[in-house]
Here is the input.
Amino acid sequence: MQRMARHRPEPGSRRQPGANPSSVREQGCPSMTHRHTILRPLPLIVIAQFFGTSLWFTANAVIGDLGREWELTTGQLGHLTSAVQLGFITGALAFAISGLADRWPASRIFLVCAMIGALSNAAFVLSGSMGEAMLWRFITGLALAGIYPVGMKLVAGWAPDRKGMALGWLVGMLTLGTAFPHLVRALGPDWDWQTVVLVSSLLAAVAGIMIGRLGDGPHLPARGVFDWGGVLRAFRLPRYRAAAFGYFGHMWELYAVWTLAPLLIAGMLGLGTDSAQVSLAAFLFIGIGAVGCVLGGYLSRRFGSARVAFTALAISGLACLTWPVLGSLPNWIGILFFLTWGLAVIADSPQLSALAAESAPSDSVGSSLAVMNSIGFLLTVFAIELTAGWWQQLGGATTWLLVIGPALGLVALRPLLAQPRGSA
Here is the structure.
C-alpha cells in the first residue's frame, strides 16, 4: 500500500497540455522522469534537428550540376543560399512578433514546418527558372524557422535543467544537417542532382513524424510577448551588446564560408566542384563543426563561454586571413587546415547565444534573442552575396572580405573576458 501511495498523484494535479502521458505518470518518481528525459526525448529531438536542417544547403551540395545544367554564375548560385537565409529571417521574426510559437504546441509547429520544408525542397527540383527556384528556397527558409529555433523550445519542455548542454548539441546537429547533403553527393557520385536534393526532403518528413509522435514535454516554458522595448533595453546593456556584436561578427563569416566550401576545396584539390572527393571534404569541413559545438560546450564549463567564443572566433578569423597567402599546400596539410577551420567556425555560436541569453533583461530574453538572430542572419545574406559575386575575380582571396567580421567580433568580446571562469 505504501508503494502505491508513493506513486499516486497529489490531489488536484492534472495533466499538463501537450505532456506525454508516460511522463505524467512518472512525475511521482524523479529518478524515472530523469531517466526517461535522458534516454528518449533528447536523442529524438537531436536526431530530428539533424534530419530537418539537412534542407538548408541542398542547393550548395549540387552546385556543380546546377552551374552546368542551368548555366548559372557563382553569383547566381549564391542567390539560392541567400533566398534560404531571407526566408529564415522572415519566418523567425514572424513567429516572434505574432507569438504563434506560444499559441501552438512546439511539436505541432515542428511537424507542419518539417512537412512544408520537405515539399518545398522537393518542388525545387522541378523549378523551371531561377526565379521559381529562389521562391522554393525562400519557402524552405521559412520552414526552417519552425524547425531550428523550435527545437530549443522542445528541449526546454523536456529537460529544462540541461538546456546548456542541449544547446551545444542542437547547434551541432544544425551543423551536421547543413553538411549532410555534401555527404549524400559524395556517397552517390553517379546520382543525378535531383536525387541528392530529395534525400533531404525524405529526412525532413521523417523528422516531422518523429517530433509529432513525441509531443511537447511536461515542463512547458513560460509564455512571453514580443517586446520591442525589451530589445532596446537589452542593447543598452554592455554585456548583452558585447555578446550580440560578437555574434554579428561570427555570422558575417559563418554562412559565407560554408557557401564557399566546395569552391575553396575544389581549388585546393584541383578538381571540379562535382567531384566526390570535394563533396566528402566539404562534408567534413562543415560537419566537424558539430564536434566543435559539443566540445565548446564542455570547455565553457571550465573556462567560461566568453573565452571559448573568443578563441574559436580568433582561430576562424585567422584562417580567413591566412588561407589566400598559404600558396600550394600538400593536400593532407590543406585538409587538416580546413578541418581546424571547420571545427572553430561554428564552435562560438552556442556560447555567444548563451552569453546573450544570460545578459538580456529577464523579461525579454526571447525577444532579444529573436532580434539578435534575425540581424545575424541578415548579415549572412550580404556576406554571401558579396563573396559569391567577387569569386570570379578574387578566387581564394575572397576570404579576405570576411575577415572584418571576426575582427570586429573579437573587439566586441574583449570586455567579457574579465568574467570569472566557469560562468556563461
Q: What stands out?
A: The domain at 47-418 is CATH 1.20.1250.20 (Growth Hormone; Chain: A;). Residues 238-269 form the longest helix (32 residues). Confidence is low (pLDDT under 50) at residues 1-39.
